């Protein structure tokens, strides 16, 4: 019996030592995506648009650095502004970050920006930029003269 008990005890100790830790933190770097279209714009576009775009990038939760690349095409006129705003898929919100956009109907916007932990005025509901990104409450949009409130838009998804 003693011979059987020792291997069983050793097996139990080995199995408990291999137990997986369920408190594993999320990876520091996440993929960020978004599909821009006129159909996503809030409020709805005033002039119909076949404009589209794609945002791809990464977010590093340890440094709060957002790296992004936005390709867009088919706008009703040259882009006049581009921003990352606070807001969920059904609401427009205040500007979180101004982006530099080429004055063209198609092009690329890219860069690296640190997301800040403080809240900006006009954010609804009040939240930091990293928290807003991780809860799906940041969106990117591109404005034109024909659609000054925004012609194409995508909420950012971080995973």
From TrEMBL:
Keyword annotations: Signal
Ranges for domain CHRD: 28-159
Family matches, as InterPro entries: CHRD
Signal peptide interval: 1-19
The organism's place on the tree of life at top rank: Bacteria
Protein name (record): CHRD domain-containing protein
């Amino acid at each position: 019996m003693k011979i059987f008990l020792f291997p069983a005890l050793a097996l139990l100790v080995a199995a408990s030592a291999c137990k997986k830790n369920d408190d594993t933190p999320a990876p520091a770097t996440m993929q960020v995506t978004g599909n821009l279209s006129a159909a996503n714009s809030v409020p709805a576009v005033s002039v119909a648009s076949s404009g589209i775009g794609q945002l791809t990038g990464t977010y590093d939760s340890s440094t709060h650095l957002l790296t992004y690349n936005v390709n867009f095409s088919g706008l009703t006129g040259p882009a006049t502004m581009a921003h990352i705003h606070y807001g969920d898929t059904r609401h427009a919100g205040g500007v979180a970050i101004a982006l530099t956009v080429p004055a063209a109907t198609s092009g690329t916007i890219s860069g690296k920006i640190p997301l800040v932990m403080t809240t900006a005025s006009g954010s609804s509901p009040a939240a930091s930029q990293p928290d807003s990104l991780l809860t799906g409450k940041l969106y990117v949009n591109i404005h034109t003269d024909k659609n000054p409130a925004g012609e194409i838009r995508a909420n950012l998804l971080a995973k």
